[in-house]
Batch of 3 targets.
Target 1
Amino acid sequence: MAVEQEPLVQVRHLKKYFPITRGIIQRHVGDVKAVDDVTFDIYRGETLGLVGETGCGKTTVGRTIIRLYEATDGEVIFEGEQLRSLRGSALRQMRRRMQMIFQDPYASLNPRMTVGSIVAEPLTVHRVARGAEKKARVEELLNLVGLNPYFAARYPHEFSGGQRQRIGIARALALNPDLIVCDEPISSLDVSIQAQVVNLLKDLQVRMGLTYLFIAHDLSMVRHISDRMAVMYLGKIVELTDRNEIYLNPMHPYTQALMSAVPVPDPEVEEQRRRIILEGDLPSPANPPAGCNFSTRCPKVMEICSQEEPEFKELKPGHWVACHLY
């Protein structure tokens, strides 16, 4: 699918801090800097992959963009509209255009509701359809994700993990959104089912003109589905570029370490590859290091790294890196 070079979402200096409080009066003593000054664009019709280790802030970025979390600072601009300033009915209208597929299909579906009720809930909440029209739309959505419409009367516990994730996808598609945040939608599924769900998402993107922010750990799968990839470390994006460029020419030392861990299905190539083993522990987002966040673990650290924060800049057309080496 040809990606239009027109940003659907523009994220500018986005921050999300969670306050740390102590004592009976809940005194504010610090912040967990889950997302700390993140900037990027998501173009209409593309899939932007967001990768990084557990706890780096990937999910918080996705939830803050669609205002499941309120941002501490920064801007999220959706087709020219400043999302942080929207209130009431204007925000309600905008929410129809942004949906989320959650990570755990076992926890994200209400066990007391039938599949039909779960898929129809967005239609009910936004008063889009009712009666026979709503029932027909639910059947259409279940067909769209490869489930039998007769399953509408069943409950989530009667389905496998892959089928439950399809139900979650059907619910996300109910209002014909423009942007879907896919929060690790395949991480809790069997490997054989993962490919089915990813192929379904790619097919739906082509058929419905969807735009995805795809959050995941599996670098090979992200390369398969994404047009561009962003790498996060401790609340910041350290590198952002085309999916093939990031595999063939990673520039940030953290990205190089990540890519060295991806197995290659060729014994001769795999034997000659050198793994980059990072030493030390991941710093706490409540107390990040001075200067570059990666300076405590970086194999190429310099004196300036622990003193000044590197600028996130475009080194080559479309290739953004935050590192003092360049």
Note: The two ends are 33 Å apart (CA to CA).
Target 2
Amino acid sequence: MLKKVEMAQDQFFSVDRLYISFGGLIAVDNISFDVEKGSIFSIIGPNGAGKTTIFNCISGLYKPGSGSVYFKGEAVTGLRPHKIARKGIARTFQNIELFSRMTTMENLMLGRHVHIKTGIWSGATFFRRKSPAAREEVKHREQVERIIDLLDLQSARNQFVGGLPYGTQKLIELGRALALEPELLLLDEPSAGMNSEEKQDLIFWIKDIQEELGVTILLIEHDMKMVMDISDSILAINFGKFIAEGEPEKIQQHPEVLKAYLGEDDGIDYLT
């Protein structure tokens, strides 16, 4: 056990024997995996496999019954969500969690909250051009403008989020997570509700986030073509249990993975 913990602490990000149940139903059953810095690591499995539950344990929404989560050598298991965000872990949600009556810019600025240093009294003096609050506001807006340019959201900058197309709202949620300047980004079904053109654009943006921003990505996604195209490594689970882990070529040919998705082991085309 000690050897496994030492190995986990040497990793950029590691989940060690994560277990959680709800009312006697086991949702995640002793799942372990390591994510290399700078990689795209995907978790796949049928509906109800436990994928989002793993994300909720990582991001602090759920406290696991047992097991540990390590980030840059530090145990973050059970920390509150805002403390995990401050350590450099951000996430998106399967269902959009934006403020519909606020603009794109305002929603993205909310993502900067963990970096705000000036207090209420400094904020009250914002009208002073050279006040700390004014300088900080400019810095945060500059960072948000870079995200708007990266995700091509210029036309939506000053529009209320509630009136924007669903695919654009998904991008804004991605942008808000990026506004935290994370080192590890958890993407939960980022392409859900997008058309084929939007999905193709999303693939390019995810690769840009990985390569240009240097962000490590942990991805949950049902679009298997996307997963196979962009993942460096894939973990397959079903009913909360480990099935297989490895490079895309290995996973798309794995008989237990095919059986979990199709109920048979001759449907290779589905995952290619």
Note: Confidence is low (pLDDT under 50) at residues 1-5, 119-127, 265-270.
Target 3
Amino acid sequence: MKKGVLKVSLLLVVLFMSLSSMAESPRKVVCIGETVLDILFRNEKPISANPGGSALNSAVSLGRSGVNVYFVGETGKDHTGDIIRSFLRENGVNGTCVRQYEGMNTMTSLAFLDEKNNAHYSFYMTRPRQREDFILPVINPDDIVIFGSFYSVNPDIRNQMRRFLDYAHDRGAIIYYDVNIRPPHSSMIGIIRPYVIENMKIADVVRGSRGDMRTVFQCSDADSAYVKYVEPSCRYFISTGGTNPVIVNTGTVREEYPVKKIKTVSTIGAGDNFNAGFAFGLIQLGITRLQLIKGLSPKQWSELIKYTQMFSQNSCMSLENYVSKAFGNKMKLHH
């Protein structure tokens, strides 16, 4: 056999093996967002400290539930950052896409729990002198991307975020956007609202909370927010509001799903674990992006919301920001 033919044959074999490996690899979830150490206070006294950040909380719950999950984010090269990276490894999250910065202090959040166990926050951080591009995993068709909060509209990293979203979209991932803009950023709404709209346009599913209705959309109800802001950009809108029913708008169907009332310990991770449950449900039910685009059946939506509530409610039963390890192990058995 001639050398040229041999080289081509070897290249074809490598390509075939690469494609085969890609086809056999499990679907992954990529969560991108800030890394935070959450210090919880009740009655003005610290009671717990947990690695946090919206996307990180989702990632940890998925990792505990046996999902192939990557977290994309950044920490300082400090002790707090070491704690967070170690915690990700211990909970089944691939943290190879966490960039470390010299001279940056990893963000710390003081979360003050009120009488209803809802949190009010104060954030403390230093920015890196110069941000580099995100470290990204290879994204394959039907992988799932979870992103949102101020991190996704932060002007300092908006260009990197947009490149990442374009990449994920071009690769055929299901993109799930949790708006999640907290009141401290309400003074910047004029600057960041165009980025929120850009995010909704590239997303396959958008979730907004009751707080987002007021802060971002300046609406008093989910239906008004959907018609005025979401529907022109994204077909699917899920709105949540504590113990109020979950509302799903699809453009053709509007459905409400009652929320089971439970005794909460902390609601910090409720929304983040709602997002994790949605991603888990997509994988568990085998829902592809093509199926999502064509439209899901009422039964599929009902099953998806069931998973969101299971994850969300479990996370509210402890001071952690994620589902319990026992819950995660139980979900693994059915996964």
Note: Residues 5-24 have pLDDT under 50 and may be disordered.
